[in-house]
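Practice set, problem 2.
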Amino acid sequence: MDRLSELVLASASPRRLDLLRQIGIVPAAVDPAEIDETPVKDELPAHYARRIASAKLDAVAPRHPGCFVLAADTVVACGRRILPKAEDAATARKCLGLLSGRRHHVLGGIAVAAPDGRRILRLVDTAVIFKRLAEAELAAYLDGGEWHGKAGGYAVQGRAAVFVRAISGSYSNVVGLSLYDVEAMLNGLGFRS
């Protein structure tokens, strides 16, 4: 295989893999970074998204010399607060309660390394407005379990789509990876799919 078409995805996210396939990019390998993703005290969401994407790239790129490496992180931010990935229903309920009836931001940190060592780091900001959630619809969503492992406790590509009144910016960023930006970054570094 031509090295200019070999991409390693530094992510365990099946959504990111699906998104890349949607635009005809099939990574040669998937190699999750497995880094500490704990926010630093008082860290702002935009800084966190860029820092984690860059740290993932730093962890994985040395393991794949001569390849393009793509790393990303998605942060749901409510004001200055970084919402966690919901690992239990109580966390999901708390996140969705904060988002109910409000505008929030989904920040996508994207970091790409080229085989020659050049790197690009970009932050994508998508504003999302949720309708006010009634207790019955919140309970039904939580019962479905779709929230598990999702930043901010929701998956916009699933049943939570009915919560969204408006989106300003990249829809695929909210799913997990801004395809517009990924393609532009990869093309800028000479990647050929």
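Problem 2, part (b): a different protein.
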Amino acid sequence: MTLRFHYFTSAKELAAIIFLLLVQGALIFWYEYHYRLEQRQWTEETIRIGFKPSHRVDAVLSPYGPGLDRELVDLFCSRNDLTPVWVEVQDYRQGLEKLINHDLHLLLPVPGMQIPEVKALKKGPVYMEGSFLVLHNQWRYPLRDLEDLCSTEVVVPGRSAFDKILQDMRQVLQCELEPSKRPDPGKDFFNALAERRFRFGIKDEKNYMFWKSLYPEVRRSASLDKTYALSWLWSSDYMNLDHKFQDFWRDIKDSGVLEGIQEKYLGFYPETQDPYELRHFQQTLINELPKYADTIREVSQRYNLDPLFLVAIIYQESRFDPGATSHTGVRGLMQITAQTAEFLGIEDRLDPHQSIAGGARYLYKLGERMDRIGITSWDKWFMALAAYNQGLGHVYDARTLAERHGFNPDSWSGLKKAYPLLSYKEYYQTVRRGYARGYEAVNFVENVRYYYSILYGQALLPGFESEHLGGFLDLVPSDWPQ
């Protein structure tokens, strides 16, 4: 009996010891976990963003805002009460090092970036994709075969992201492909091709899309068998900051905010930018715009409009032909209907000065109607353009259809999806004003946006039409969307 009792007591003591050890281990684990977690919590009021200069970060040549990435960063910071600190990096490799070492907290992407397999790095959703292109000047022979790149002058942006592209091409072509020049991307790169100093250049698709409108002589030769996808990159070491980034991207995607921002900066570019149309556009500005510049300046101030916006409308409507008449009966520089002319008190629609003044007044009034239903910023003016083209009633009908189909009726990105439905009987029979040429309205708005973007860039870049357009920039209303 005594031996059995002593054995039972020893087992109980052993169990107690094991239990105490487990508790101690659990306490140590809990302490370490929460201590480390506390160390990883983001407590600062600023966030450091690494970037390389680009149109997405500093869109100085765009009228639509500071740039897609910069607007997204500003939105993230405003939602989380953070102040952005912008840190320019020499190249993407340096940016990665700074991110891993916690000198940066967010790294904005560049086309062709190589992301290492590092556990602490977190990649956000893809928000832009494209391919890489070989470009040439229209007055030099286009690319016949990729091997042509081995024996001629090639200009490549001076960024490390393009090093991998060159390396891959060397392996494929079996030649020592070395670029003749590696300028900064943007104006310097396209100047090099536009001035015919190099036969070919290599560039990413989205940058080419923007700069082509300012350099129509630079043509697309071929697409390389290499694509890119852009995503934000951040460190997951700070757990709460990691969660903020994830929540932000989930929310802007689900709510349609991301789509609206993408639409504002990218949605108006045509699939194919006709270089001959771009040339005609530039020549028209040189030859015709001076005849009406004083009137445009005067009426834009009177009706609180950006004069460049007015120039874009005139070109889209009539190509600056004061006698222009469409098959629907609209006439003049601003293509005004007889009914609208009577409403505005226009005596002669073919008088260019009456047409410009009347069209500007009509657009201003349409903008006021958008104000009344709570449409703001660029959406206000894009919807006013649609109303200018097809009538205000059809804007209301398109908004009704947008709401029915789950599109945002208060944004142009939502309305442009609904507008084409007004051309189909099964839809236009269900709204008040009936049939409309919905696709035509969308094309009109997108074309005006496109020409307006080109005008803005031309007004800022020396060597284009800045002598004709530069003075217009001083007349942009203070409350015009930025």
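Answer key, part (b): The CA atoms of residues 80 and 244 lie 8 Å apart. The longest strand covers residues 218-230.
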